[in-house]
Specification:
heterodimer; A: alpha+beta; Multidrug efflux transporter AcrB transmembrane fold; Alpha-Beta Plaits; Gyrase A, domain 2; 3 domains; B: alpha+beta; 4-stranded antiparallel β-sheet; two-stranded parallel ribbon; 63% helix
Chain lengths: 493, 351
């Protein structure tokens, strides 16, 4: 790499840092977590329908907590605090000041079920007058018990927010469906996600063992009905509203059904965007719409942080002091190169902070654990420089010129750095996708830190050290000079 | 030659004994005492206070509850203006027990609450999170083994994971032994340690791999010597990295939790502090000696070791032909050893 491109790289890096610094300088600050800034607390009271199932009530409540958690998680890394208090469920979300947003996130009393469709009743058909009044709010409509057959309203066509009572109470008449008893409940769904299939967007559904069996049975029966000219559709019912009623594909055989525990549902929509939006919505409903009991929002309150500002302040102070100590050590041990390492750390700090701030706008909240993660990242970032500098010394000690030493050293130091960071990144990615709640936020910080570490090494440390290698600041003696100091350091400490 | 010549591999029996003892103590302590899980894991008692004095701070509530004998206190103020309340969560207490009533009494007195209720509060860090975190951990280890096998070699991957498990066990063991509270922050810290420990081990092994090209060039160096030499070459890196990592965490531990009294930081910082120290120890004294011990059992290495022993018997200098890998067990300098082990009797090293 020639001098010009080194200078160019360095300039671009510094411009990016300047940009990040300006962003922070304009007063943008990270969105802090529940522990540091407080948030909104909602208490939901569980309403158990019918006879109260004494047995397993705890289990159902626990599962409800998980469903709510999944819903909150699916909307971003908000680091919610969700717990049970008796039959109440306390949901705390950081930094959100309006109650409506919480209500929107947690949704209403969503319970998901699959029911076979016996008849589709379009508006205007004689039977359309029967059944519930579809313009009434959901909680005022008659409810259909799970073992009953009856008529249910369809969901309005405008792509309303699932589970939102205000929007589901549509003004335009919708299809009604005559449906059979519940064939399968949402609890049997393991996962649902939108995929791009051959015929456009679809939702892929994964069921547990029992669900797979039930699914095969019901789809087998429906395929027979389809062959006899009946609708052969399976209604996806959320809170007594038919969200979607996919028919059986010609490939599904009568009496066999869809086996194997996975299925896909092709979504409607004229354009690809609409299809995609439909698939995303439906997947969200399927994935999280399986609350086993109904919940009533009892109270909404703004709550104070669990830790308070003094913790935040002492955490940040500790970070600053730690950083200063690291700085002193690096300068003492590596002289000019120590300055480079310190600058790399400063850049890391500014860029990370602005990234965290930017992520705050999409719901990411920085908790005390996150701050600690960042303080740890200081050590790991310093390590990249240390590996590089130690390598330069090794090479210089072998009698090579500074320029050659720097070049050879970077090649091998970068390989090492990449290997180490790949492992960290793997940890971050896996934790992010497989874990929930607080672990996800941590994983995100870890991932950001390791990617930034690599970038800074390439775009800052390397060009700067390469350029320094051509100056008087860095010659054989200065590179090697620290050696006696090393021994002395050992003695004096 | 500035590269230190410390015999890591040669004393592997000693390290194995140290590590083995630590792990046995950890396991024993975990088996007998278990872990002191915070209310985030096991749930606790919640005191809901209504109509509290506007001037009440969360600090007042915490002090009141702690004075009345509660631990793990998480106070939160709710609402604003006239309609203020508070939610105080503490460790689990028997409903209606003297202690629970005493805490309630203290809280009401401190806040001037008009009304208060006690209820059991479930964990916020549920079974499911723990389970998913563990699953993620397993998947991660498999991926790491595959990656390191591909990038370096399979035996190194196994050695890295052995060191990792070693670190986690000892850190958790210390928590159990001292009776520290295990909070979600501790779990996060353990996950950090995991990344850190692996990173450190990978750096050491990367150098071993790089130097391995020279192994057997003149056909004379055993794997143990190679590992030893490589580790000595990266020793300054390891020490400096440890220092730069431990300094901020130490600051977090001392300044954050001791001086300013933010006890929550303690969970986090302590786990990190211990974990990092153990992580550095294990990458030098567990992972590499383990790797070397395993590799030395390969027939090729056994033969090389025999040749090496014969050569020593004949009184030849085994390093004669191999200047490229710098250190060896024979040239051990006691001064450096002292420096590394951090004992008092350090002497100035001459160049």
């Amino acid at each position: 790499m020639n001098k010009r491109s080194l200078v160019a790289t360095l300039t671009v890096t510094l411009l990016v840092v300047l940009l990040a610094g300006t962003y922070l300088g304009l007063g943008n600050r990270p969105n802090l977590g529940l522990d540091l800034q407080g948030g909104i607390s909602a208490i939901y009271t569980a309403e158990i329908e019918g006879e109260e199932p004494e047995e397993g009530l705890d289990e159902i409540l626990d599962q409800t907590v998980e469903v709510i958690r999944a819903r909150v998680d699916s909307l971003g890394v908000a680091e919610p605090d969700i717990s049970r208090a008796g039959t109440d469920i306390i949901v705390q979300l950081p930094g959100i000041s309006d109650a409506e947003r919480v209500q929107e996130i947690i949704g209403t009393t969503a319970q998901l079920a699959f029911r076979p469709v016996e008849e589709v009743i379009p508006p205007g058909a004689p039977a359309h007058d029967e059944g519930p009044d579809c313009s009434a709010p959901i909680d005022e409509r008659e409810q259909l018990a799970s073992d009953e057959s009856g008529i249910l309203c369809g969901s309005p066509f405008d792509g309303a927010t699932p589970g939102d009572p205000a929007e589901t109470a549509a003004t335009t008449p919708v299809d009604k469906y005559r449906v059979g008893p519940v064939a399968l409940t949402g609890e049997r769904i393991e996962n649902a996600f939108p995929t791009l299939g051959q015929g456009g967007f679809e939702v892929t559904l994964e069921l547990d063992n029992q669900g797979a069996q039930q699914w095969a049975e019901i789809t087998g029966e429906l395929a027979c009905e389809r062959d006899q000219g009946q609708p052969g559709m399976l209604a996806i019912v959320l809170d007594d509203v038919v969200e979607s009623a996919p028919g059986m594909n010609p490939g599904v055989a009568c009496g066999v059904g869809i086996t194997g525990g996975t299925a896909s549902i092709t979504t409607g929509g004229a354009t690809q965007e609409e299809q995609e939006a439909d698939a995303v919505d439906l997947a969200l409903i399927l994935r999280t719409g399986a609350l086993p009991i109904s919940l009533e929002a009892a109270t909404f309150d703004v709550v104070s942080p669990t830790l308070g500002t003094e913790s935040l302040r002492s955490g940040l102070l500790a970070g600053a002091i730690g950083l200063a100590l690291v700085g002193v050590w690096l300068l003492f041990f590596y002289r000019v190169l120590g300055v480079v390492a310190l600058s790399a750390l400063a850049i890391f700090g500014v860029v990370t902070l602005s990234l965290v701030t930017a992520l705050g706008t999409v719901g990411f909240a920085l908790t005390l654990a996150g701050i600690a993660g960042l303080i740890v990242a200081i050590g790991i970032t310093a390590d990249s420089s240390i590996i590089f500098f130690e390598r330069i010394r090794d090479e210089a000690n072998l009698g090579k010129t500074v320029r050659t030493s720097v070049k050879t050293a970077f090649a091998s130091a970068f390989r090492t750095n990449l290997a180490g960071n790949t492992v960290t990144l793997a940890a971050a990615v896996i934790l992010y996708f497989l874990a929930v709640g607080p672990v996800r936020g941590f994983a995100l910080m870890l991932g950001i830190a390791s990617v930034l570490d690599i970038l800074i090494m390439v775009a800052f440390t390397r060009p700067l050290v390469f350029l320094l290698a051509g100056t008087k600041l860095m010659n054989r003696r200065t590179v090697r000079a620290a050696e006696p100091a090393v021994a002395t350091a050992g003695v004096r400490r | 030659m500035r590269t230190p010549t410390f015999d890591f591999v040669g004393r592997s029996r000693l390290w194995a004994m140290i590590s083995g003892t630590l792990i046995l103590i950890s396991l024993g302590s975990l088996g007998i005492g278990g872990l002191d899980l915070s209310i985030d894991f096991v749930g606790g008692t919640a005191y809901r206070l209504e109509g509290i004095d506007p001037g009440t701070t969360s600090g007042d509530l915490r002090d009141a509850a702690e004075d009345a004998g509660a631990v793990d206190v998480i106070p939160q103020l709710q609402g604003a203006g006239d309609d203020r309340g508070a939610l105080v969560r503490t460790d689990a207490m028997e409903p209606g027990s003297e202690q629970a009533l005493a805490v309630e009494q203290a809280l009401v007195e401190a806040s001037g609450a008009e009304n208060s209720t006690i209820s059991f509060v479930g964990p916020t860090w549920g079974q499911r999170i723990t389970q998913q975190a563990l699953e993620a951990l397993l998947v991660f280890m498999v991926v790491v083994v595959i990656y390191i096998s591909f990038r370096l070699e399979f035996k190194m991957a196994v050695a890295a994971v052995v060191a990792l498990v070693h670190d986690l066990l000892i850190t958790i063991g210390l928590y159990s032994l001292v009776g520290f509270n295990v909070s979600p922050a501790t779990v996060i810290a353990l996950l950090t340690i995991l990344g850190y420990s692996l990173y450190d081990t990978v750096v050491v092994f990367d150098r071993v791999k790089e130097n391995a090209v020279q192994l057997g060039e003149p056909g004379r160096r055993t794997y143990a010597q190679l590992v030893n030499a490589s580790m000595n070459e990266v020793l300054y890196r390891s020490l400096n990295t440890s220092i730069t990592s431990v300094l901020p965490v130490g600051a977090l531990l001392l300044i954050g939790s001791q001086l300013l009294g933010a006890t929550t930081l303690q969970d986090l910082a302590l786990a990190l502090f211990v974990g990092m120290l153990v992580g550095v120890y294990s990458s030098l004294f567990v992972a590499a000696p383990f790797l070397s011990w395993w590799k030395m059992r390969e027939p090729e290495q056994v033969r090389a070791a025999e040749r090496e022993a014969e050569r020593l018997e004949r009184g030849e200098d085994p390093d004669e032909d191999v200047p490229s890998v710098t250190a060896s067990t024979e040239r051990r300098a006691p001064i450096t050893t002292d420096y590394v082990r951090g004992e008092g009797k350090r002497r100035k090293r001459r160049r």
